[in-house]
Amino acid sequence: MPVALTLSVSFWSDQFVNGLTTGSLYALIALGYTMVYGVLKMINFAHGEVFMLGSFAGYGALVAMGGNDLSGPAVALAILGAIIVAMSASVSASVVIERLAYRPLRGAPRLAPLISAIGVSIFLQYLVLEQTSARAKFYPDIFPRGALGAGPFEITYIQLFLIASSVAMMALLYAIIQRTRLGRAIRAVAENPTNASLMGVDVNRTIVFVFILGAAMAGVAGVLYGLFFQTIRGSMGFIPGIKAFTAAVLGGIGSIPGAMAGGYVLGLAETVGRELLNELPGVNLGNQWRDVIAFTLLVTILIFRPTGIFAQRSTTRA
Amino acid sequence: MNGRQGRSRLAWLLLAASFAMVLAAACGGDDDDDTGGGDVTYGKAGFKTIEIASGQPIKIGYSGPLSGDLKGIGEPILKAVELAAKGKTIKGHTIQVIGKDDLCSADGGASAATQLLQEGVVAVVGPVCSGAVVAAQPQYEQAGITHVSPSSTAHKPTYPDRGQVFQTFLRTTYSDDIQGPAQAKFARETLGAKTAYVVYDTDAYGTGLRDAFTRAFEKEGGKILGSEGYEKKQTDFKAIVTNIKNAKPDLVYFSGFYSEATPFIKQLRAELKDVKFLAGDGVKNDEFIKGAGADAEGAYLSLPSPVYTGEAYKTFGDLFEKETGIKRDASPFVAEAYDAASIIIRAIEKVATEKDGKLVIDLKKLNEEIRKTELDGASGKIKFDARGENAGGETPVSLFQVKNGAFEQLKQ
């Protein structure tokens, strides 16, 4: 294990970038949890599987377009294509789930849609596990390797791409929520569905759009995850789903900036936070401790700030 | 406000205290360094007598991964067991192999054991994975069912935590107490590695092999720069790779399975092209080369198996390839599995008696007969010591390197 004070600047900057990378993925997925909670006050536990389906759809698209044989500018086009396919797959899955598993339960006691969501989650996970005989699939190894660097600071191309595209997606989402009619409708439904419908907002349609936006983010996250870690499997949605849910709660569930911040806080806590703890004398927490640290952080923050880092305000809520 | 804050302080204190206790407990578990032979004492095994009605088959169980990422290890082993049982009859009874999927996990091993015992098996080949073996041993011992693992290499199954050795467990492969030191010697002398960084699966196999390698590597004068664990199915190894980059070891030592070694080596090679990579039997599988592609090139792998030279291996290998269509060296331990099943079948032949038209098998006698085995099998010479360890072979570790997309055996 690294010993205190011998750790270099480049080590910390590398771990920081690693934290930002996983944090970006958590944040993208967390948006889906937080927006659905904002309008429906329900936890969409099937969201991790929506992310998984996106990742598999992106994999299928990349393989269909030539897989490992892709090179040159075709790679950029293929990745763009994979992202679009993944977004469409995630969005369709999410719309179907909403229509079949959640809408019939609107107005039912709050536990009913929650149980329904868990059911959908398990169903989808095992469906894909069955189809793949529970084996991992490997994303084509097409993303250019190498890194940008200045002195001790270094970031690989794939990490740069991952962080930049998630930030861009989040900025786009934020603009939609804040600047468009649709966004205003979403905010109105979040604040008070009855009043919103009295003002002429089609509540059901707005809710479908919330699912669409969240699923699109998850679809992008699925492809980014595949390109970065290269290994995907039917059960891959579970842990990122739980982590993203944690990020959403950490940031204050229902709050969009909260979900983004929560994702990054969690990603950094698992990497930089763990290594910082290792600087204390006698502490030696290997990589296997990351989940313990993530969930200890959650419990600690909830003790002091039960509503999360970002207290819910109606203006930031979706 | 004051009261509320007081309460939350108390909650925080309790949380910190419980966390500290968990830490203490977790760290305390690491100090079992019992490698010495020592006296062997057995616990009580629940040997019974099994009667098989005429026309009914004799059931032999198998427990190993038959779905999921590690299917590539478990399926060929089951095929080898079935091959050993194929066409054999004992006093008019056919032999039926009942395969149960244990997913290579502790939970799976225990539940496969329950299912196999309910099926009325007389003996079991497996579990394949050490994590499953450790979880299943008490059940087999209580039922008096002898189980012979062809592939569990960890230290724990033959040196159980409870102290008393399990009478019903034996293995036809060799312990990591042999593989670990052999790897360490190879790393020090042949590869010239002075420093190593260890990455391990947190199950019984991964931690056992880690300990065996670490001890021997340090004894040979090497230095371990760091040691980090992961859970099965983990795909994110970036934080570990960064630590490795920072520690600058000569060698990365991986003790786990190919399912995680594949994403790990891809992420490692994306940043560190030249560091040497050494792993054990869990990674030495064609699936590793298939998954990792060019990144697998140059990796060193070891197997706790002799260099197969015997005529029996050739005969078995030809038969295996003809009957199953699987290459004999695509996945390890198939010869060991064939031998394990053959040992069980031979012992049943010797101890089974007929009474009132039924076949009677005394499980205690069966266990004694299996323990007495001396076999010149497909995987080499096999005989068991008091702990159930295979004490037959002369050159029990072979080493490989991935070259041009294939495993090339290294001369020793």
Structure description:
The complex is a heterodimer of chains A (318) and B (412). Chain A has 318 residues and is mainly α. The longest helix of chain A has 32 residues, at 9-40. Helices cover 69% and strands 4% of the residues of chain A. In chain A, strands 1-4 form a two-stranded antiparallel ribbon. In chain A, helix 2 (47-64) runs parallel beside helix 4 (111-131). Chain A has one domain: Orthogonal Bundle (ABC transporter involved in vitamin B12 uptake, BtuC). Chain A is built from eleven helices and four strands; from the N terminus they run ααααβββααααβααα. In chain B, 56% of the residues are buried. In chain B, strands 9-8-10-11-12-17-18 form a seven-stranded mixed beta sheet, with helices on both faces. In chain B, strands 3-4-2-5-6-7 form a six-stranded mixed beta sheet, with helices on both faces. Chain B is α/β, with parallel strands linked by helices and 412 residues long. Chain B folds into two domains: 49-174 and 309-383, Response regulator (Rossmann fold, 3-Layer(aba) Sandwich), CATH 3.40.50; 177-303, Rossmann fold, CATH 3.40.50. Chain A binds chain B through residues 1-2, 7-8, 10-11, 14-15, 18, 21-22, 68, 133-136, 138, 141, 145, 147, 156, 158, 229-233, 235-236, 270-271, 274, 286-288, 290, 296, 299-300, 303-304, and chain B through 8, 11-12, 15, 19, 67-69, 71, 202, 226-231, 233, 235-240, 242-243, 245-247, 259, 262-263, 266-267, 270-271, 291, 293-294.
